[in-house]
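worker-3 :: picked Myb/SANT-like domain-containing protein
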Amino acid sequence: MSFKVREAHWQVLHEEMDKNAVLATGKFVGPKGRENYKKLWDEAAKKLNSLGYGLKSTDKWQKGFVNLNVVYLLKMRNLSQAQVACKGHQ
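worker-3 :: tokens ->
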């Protein structure tokens, strides 16, 4: 069953990414980098699920974050393009 991600989820995710930037960047280093990256996401998912609003797999949390990033980046790009277009019409 799907549930709506709440502000508390974003706070926990933000805290985890502040502690471990690799969660946000996806750039892992070293021979155990990928393994450590997965462990960090597993820990983050456990904390997110412990909030009591519902359960999602690690993959679902990860995918949700990636989708949010894509939407955010597209909005920023569109805003930037709009600003450039407005400057051209002044």
